[in-house]
């Protein structure tokens, strides 16, 4: 992942529609991992539509700021697109 704000925004914009694994730091050595797809990108945030197994109750989308990536509050791993047969 790039280490500048513009580089991060560009990488996320290019990856719109791709599956990702988000690892969020919750503090005190706790982490939360969620799978989803980058659904929308905006100037300050991006939205991830969660996979059914990662959805938290009724919440099926989460949003993060590009600053979250820059400050390492979250890590975004891009997954290979699953092909349907």
UniProtKB/TrEMBL annotation:
InterPro entries: Protein_Veg
Gene Ontology terms describing biological process: regulation of DNA-templated transcription
Gene3D superfamilies: 2.30.30.100
Transmembrane segments: none
Residues annotated as signal peptide: none
Pfam families found in the cross-reference section: VEG
Protein's name according to its UniProt entry: Veg family protein
